[in-house]
Predict the 3D structure of the following.
Amino acid sequence: MNLILLGPPGAGKGTQAQRLQQARGLVQLSTGDMLRAAVAAGSEIGKRADAVMKRGELVSDEIVVGIIEDRIGQPDCAKGFILDGFPRTTAQAEALDAMLARKGMKLDAVIEMVVDDAQMVDRITGRYTCAKCGAGYHDTNKRPKKSGVCDVCGGTQFTRRADDKAETVKARLDAYHRQTAPLLPYYRARGVLQQVDGMAEIDQVSAQIDKLLDRLK
Ligand code: ADP
Ligand code: ADP
Ligand code: ZN
């Protein structure tokens, strides 16, 4: 099963993609994570993406399409993947359609996580992740069971993203509405768009996603 999770920064895409990866064995493909890895590694792509990401703007279509094309062709993706943070522009969606067609793959669903923008600032400024395994947490909404210890791997180091600051969130939400929201009618017209209430509690959002995926099977 091949899925896209669509929604503004903070909507819960990463949280639900991690869960789907564990529960259904789908591969999470997060362009944000891949770009952050490139920045950390100091690669050519990382150097080009770093300043753009810090401003909360979108990295060029050419870069992210190239990254996804490489990744989707790897054998583990044959069992199904979840795109988290890609596509983000109409040009990226068209490039994705073309590459899936070439590889004989298809999209089963595009799941829009419907949320209230005003609350995304709190979600993003409270977000942090385990430095060892990447599990996601939140200062108030999702704390580790034992304070300071990752539920998944027992790690005790956590990190916050450089762009998860109140000042940058507005630019990122603007970029979503200007450049990414047009993908909603794009996928609706193709009959694959589904919606879940992203303002529900994390477990309830997961339950809504499970219900719609079970219906697709
Ligand atoms: P995205 O990948 O869409 O930017 P995340 O999955 O990283 O969003 O979620 C942003 C923050 O909000 C994280 O700290 C996460 O723990 C928290 N979060 C995710 N889903 C919910 C939810 N349904 N209710 C409350 N907080 C949530
Ligand atoms: P969030 O879901 O919180 O917005 P991501 O981790 O998906 O964050 O993305 C972080 C940043 O990486 C974006 O603000 C953007 O600069 C860049 N980025 C990630 N995915 C894409 C994409 N598909 N196209 C362009 N830029 C991207
Ligand atoms: Zn961990």
